[in-house]
User: Which sequence fits this backbone?
């Protein structure tokens, strides 16, 4: 929307949010000012406030987009019926796909430390999702399809430690077509590990 | 060393460094002032400067301790001879043990982003270590003991994504005896994955 002082870039709300989240990831949420955001998006502060109430709303929208996408995975039919190990494999694959597709948003989510109300709510939603996956690991172990010798919560943490590490090193700007290979590797390692010898 | 204004706590240099690194991890290195460090250690600034030249020296010592311990793993006899898959398994196990034993120091290392000369040197040393492990993965794949269908660098990243996640969730203050179970789970998942069915 023109503000009478030149022609500001016309971003959709989603495009604007992605730019904002990228700035949060680069500078850190705490260290980012509304001025930084206005500069990075080419909007002045009043145009900015036309779209959003403030920094914490932007944080909430950013982590909300990641959480909604991750929660949607757990609601997919293949995550809700069938043998537990199959459901788990589906969730691992789709979660990795969400990380690749929504990289800046999930990166922001994973850096949240609980300093604000919005962050604490996001951490709570993350914990709920983790607990539901841990239940799936437990059910798969009970069914005999997943090794029973690792505590399900520990297995879940290590599994998502691997999956979430994608946000640390995957650079779609450098290797835009690598996403599917990354996802396949995650699923294979999670389910079968590195070794070509069968599990003991 | 008493400073004439009361009796400051008598820490060894190592104990002092561990306290400092804990503050860096809690507040972030950039956001920590020498005053924060003096307060957290119960020393005044002049006593502090008696031990250390400044913040960047402390950062260098902290990440150096992590890097030295990780590099020492790669120099162990079991990492240097024998079948590559065995060497790799040894390195995964010992690296996880180093993370558990040197948790604050490795946590600091993993958060380094390259903003200072000390940080850039640390990132360089980390890259060297990663490259040596990737060579080990490649050798194990060539020997037929590690699945050949995942790029060795990608496998190394995912493997250490899982191992390094220990610093995100392992709380020795809450579960001081859980270390060995965490290490065993890391090795088992890395080599054999979750599934009880043999790899395809």
Assistant:
């Amino acid at each position: 929307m023109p503000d009478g002082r030149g022609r500001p870039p016309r971003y959709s709300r989603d495009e604007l949010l992605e730019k904002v989240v990228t700035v949060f990831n680069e500078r850190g949420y705490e260290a980012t000012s509304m001025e930084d955001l206005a500069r990075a998006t080419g909007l002045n502060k009043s145009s900015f406030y036309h779209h959003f109430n403030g920094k914490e709303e932007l944080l909430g929208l950013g982590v909300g987009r990641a959480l909604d996408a991750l929660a949607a995975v757990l609601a997919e039919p293949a995550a809700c019926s069938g043998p537990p190990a199959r459901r788990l494999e589906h969730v691992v694959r789709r979660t990795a796909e969400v990380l690749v597709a929504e990289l800046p948003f999930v990166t922001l989510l994973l850096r949240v430390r609980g300093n604000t109300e919005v962050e604490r709510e996001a951490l709570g939603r993350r914990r709920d999702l983790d607990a539901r996956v841990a239940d799936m690991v437990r059910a798969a172990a009970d069914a005999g399809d997943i090794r029973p010798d690792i505590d399900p919560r520990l297995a879940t943490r290590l599994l998502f430690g691997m999956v979430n590490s994608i946000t640390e090193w995957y650079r779609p700007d450098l290797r835009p077509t690598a996403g599917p290979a990354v996802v396949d590797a995650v699923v294979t390692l999670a389910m079968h590990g590195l070794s070509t010898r069968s599990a003991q």
